[in-house]
Amino acid sequence: MLNRFRQFWTKVITPIATLLLKLGVSADAVTLVGTIGVSAGALIFFPRGHLWLGTVVITCFVFSDMLDGHMARTSGTSSKWGSFLDSTLDRIGDGAIYGGLVMFYANSHAGNSTLMAAVTLWALVMGAVTSYARAKAESLGLKASGGLAERADRLVFTLVLAFFSDVLNLPILLEIVIWYVAAASTITVVQRSLSVRKQVLADPANAGLDTPPPAEPKND
């Protein structure tokens, strides 16, 4: 869904990417700093209940995910290492965001806090499995993309409603989106698993383990 806005954001980040390249900043450095910023924002502010502030900090760094890729393409330094680093650090950032929310609910005294901590943890796990399912399928020469919950959609929905649930003092908003992410991620894992099984059954050659070299890591 959010891919439709990619052209707009590319225009926004192009001057920033150009400036950083002129200053000698590498795309890998931007990737690393962005992950550190996202993780710090989530793990420092979310557990304390400062959801709006944590979201603002995370948002300031989360666009590095687009910025580093644009810098790599512009400078001609795109590589398998860069792709691997980006995807690996994305998992860390995702884990920090949902992990911070797990700690937020664990520290809360609300009546359903234990349940929400468990649901948030499930959303975290299934989000990671969603990405793993795609990477594993592609390493086997198959496809397992798409589904109900893409990574960008999950993060944007979660951060936007975390912000407004705090600002408007409506915790139900965050609870709704976490339940949605948990359910949608689970459905996506099932969808991708069924897609891989269908491809294997359609072509007996896919049933063996003699596979081509692993594909480059992908985000969701």
Assigned CATH superfamily: CDP-alcohol phosphotransferase transmembrane (TM) domain
Low-confidence stretches: none
Q: Helix count, per DSSP?
A: 8
CATH hierarchy: architecture: Up-down Bundle
Overall shape: flat
Question: N-to-C terminal Cα separation, in Å?
Answer: 13 Å
Largest sheet, if any?
none
Pathway: Phospholipid metabolism; phosphatidylinositol phosphate biosynthesis; Lipid metabolism
Subcellular location: Cell membrane
Protein name: Phosphatidylinositol phosphate synthase
Organism: Kribbella kalugense
Could you give a quick summary of the protein structure above?
This protein is an all-alpha fold. It has helices at 6-22, 27-45, 51-62, 64-75, 80-107, 113-139, 151-167, 171-202.
